[in-house]
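Slide 14.
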Amino acid sequence: MDMRRSLLFLVALLAVFGAGTQPTRAQQSGTVSGGAGNEIHLNVVVSGKSGSPVSGLQQQDFTVLDNNVPQKITSFAALDGTETPIRVLVVIDAVNEEYRRIPYERNQIDAFLRADQGELRYPTSVFVLTDRGIESVADFSTDGDKLSGALDKYTVSLRFIPRSAGFYGAADRLQISLDALHQFAQHEAQLPGRKIMLWVSPGWPLLSGPEVELDNREHQQYFADIIGFSTELRRAGITLYNIDPAGMMDSIDRDTYWENFTNGVKKPGQAQMGNLGLQVLTVQSGGMVFSFNNDITHLLERCVADTRASYDISFQPAAGERANEYHRLEIRVAKHGLKARTWQGYYSQPAAQYQQPTVPPPAGVGVRRAEFR
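Slide 15: predicted structure.
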């Protein structure tokens, strides 16, 4: 079987894997983002040249643009990380990372947990993504020494799907990764406050390229998933951060290919599997992607530092003219040299279709129940 036929078969295989779960993902999360009484709240981080979050800004310093149209800000609050609950979720990706690198990651995460005499600023937990799904190392705690001790005792088993398993193994790894993120989002949507998810991983298989051709049904499938994840993560208050533990060991070409998929997907014909990549979802959530740096401890600390100065800004979105209408979001800061990060877009529905969405409890498939306490 030549490469082209293998890729096409892979696409069909993925469609079969997703047929029973992925459309439900979008339906369960609720795709309605526009309509009366449905404000959109954005957590906004502003940074200067140093990359550190900037505090002290006022409402008049911000302009919210929805599809390039300025919006009236309906509420504004400057935050320092003490006003609302914040949870930190550290994920060790043992599915997509090479097994030999896991011990180094563990040591770096251990140093992060033990910093500042083991006193963590926010409730934190460590999870491991394995072939069996999400596994919890310990319950949420601000005791870094306790979490470190639990991590020391945890054994990461050898995976059943090696990175060398080719296209079909990559399809399995992508499915496991997306299912895990979906479960996180479903559960965190039931809890108040902001969630910082620090995913230590080289990224998930993008499974996209010039040799991959999707039919109409497959485009519709991935478009539904893109809408579902966009809505789920935003409503759950999750900001993703991706830390690539490979550091300088990866090539620039491989590390930056995901950038081809960061633009908002406006219609099914534009949807590709690459639009569901970890780095892509990270950028779209207002988080950051870190590559070519092996200092995982420092990068974890830098991600959490985003919570020390941020802004909660809300506005009332207009109803869409059609179903699943993509709206691009942009926050402009009046002061020169400052840039804002937040959600890059949302999907709106016509007013006639508006209804308050509900998110059911996690299915728990492949999840140890203790992890979300």
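Speaker note: The chain has one domain: 3-372.
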